[in-house]
Design goal:
Layout: H1 2-17, E1 25-29, H2 36-52, E2 56-60, H3 67-74, E3 82-87, H4 88-93, E4 108-124, H5 132-141, E5 147-150, H6 156-168, E6 173-176, H7 180-188, E7 194-198, H8 199-207, E8 211-216, E9 242-250, H9 255-269, H10 275-280, E10 284-285, H11 290-310
Parallel strand pairs: 1-2, 1-3, 5-6, 5-7
Antiparallel strand pairs: 3-9, 4-7, 4-8, 4-9, 4-10
Helix pairs in contact: 2-9
Length: about 325
């Protein structure tokens, strides 16, 4: 009996020694360092390490609007040691714009949408437009005259503008840039009329009085901009848009690893040292379940495919 108990203890210890994670876990971000997705990955890495043990490292693998890094994750072993931390782009937009080396609906196990943030319609401080009503009146009286800048063809800010025009039956001029920095520079310099910027990017200049916020794409008003109406409350239906960051793994992730990861990510996002900082930056904590993320992925994939196809949008 003693030998049997000793064997059980030894077996348990051996299994424990090889329990996941038994080697470094890579949080692959398919974009350059410094953006919102990179921020979320680097915020979560130490929290996951603290809650799960092991080592969690962030690896930036940029290129082809996120599809190169996403493809690398899709081809990795589904053992929980390689995870994709990406925005909605690689998950639901890029596959409709270019040929990607993965199937966005089949090649991943979806763990959670971590956070989301709405876009906000901004104009330069010197703009004659002081409300959404001003913009709509101008667009209806002056078709294809007002410029809307974006960080690139097929970007979230571009698609938000296209959706806005579609839902309001108006038209404007899309001015694509290569990244958000040049958009901000030309907005502040009054070289372009407006942009549907992510709230994280726009808030510092809104607070500084250099940009005016006229409408927000969330379902409700943002606590950061309580005086700025949402498109929905302004009567523009089906135009809610969120930029979101989510975590997925290669298809075939063991159920117990998925459960541990999900619990640790949600706990990390709601950590008292983390949550207030994310909220101050304009993020909303989501922490959806794997089932919820899977369903949301399918809905968002179909939604943006329909818009991209109907509006004949192409990549840069």
């Amino acid at each position: 009996m003693k030998k049997f108990l000793s064997l059980l203890v030894l077996t348990a210890a051996t299994c424990s020694a090889w329990a996941w994670p038994d080697k470094p876990v890579t949080l692959l971000v398919p974009f350059p360092p410094g953006g919102s997705t990179d921020l979320i990955a680097r915020t979560l890495a130490p929290k996951l390490q603290e809650k799960l043990g092991g080592t969690f490292v962030v690896d930036n693998k940029a290129g082809a609007t996120g599809s190169i890094g996403a493809g690398q994750v899709a081809r990795s072993a589904p053992d929980g040691h390689t995870l994709l931390v990406a925005s909605l782009g690689p998950y639901v937009i890029t596959p409709h714009l270019i040929k990607v080396p993965y199937d966005a609906l089949k090649d991943f196990d979806y763990i959670t949408v971590a956070v989301q943030a709405p876009n906000v319609l901004v104009v330069p401080a010197a703009s004659a437009h002081n409300s959404l009503a001003d913009v709509l009146a101008y667009l209806r009286a002056n078709p294809d005259k007002m410029t809307f800048a974006s960080s690139g063809n097929g970007s979230s800010d571009h698609l938000t503008a296209e959706l806005f025009w579609q839902q309001t039956k108006t038209t404007g001029i899309h001015i694509p840039y290569k990244g958000g920095g040049p958009v901000m520079n030309d907005l502040l310099g009054n070289q372009v009329d407006s942009s549907f910027m992510n709230i994280n990017t726009a808030m510092p200049q809104i607070k500084a009085g250099k940009l005016k916020a006229l409408a927000i794409t969330s379902a409700q008003r943002s606590p950061l901009l309580p005086n700025v109406p949402s498109l929905e409350e302004s009567g523009i239906k089906d135009a809610n848009v969120y930029s979101w960051q989510a975590i997925a793994a290669p298809k075939g992730l063991p159920a117990d690893v998925k459960a541990k990861l999900h619990a640790a990510i949600v706990a990390g996002l709601n950590d008292p040292a983390v949550k207030p900082k994310l909220l101050d930056l304009g993020f909303e904590i989501v922490g959806s379940t794997p089932a919820q993320f899977t369903a949301y992925q399918a809905v968002e994939f179909a939604r943006w495919k329909q818009l991209i196809t109907s509006r004949k949008i192409s990549a840069d």
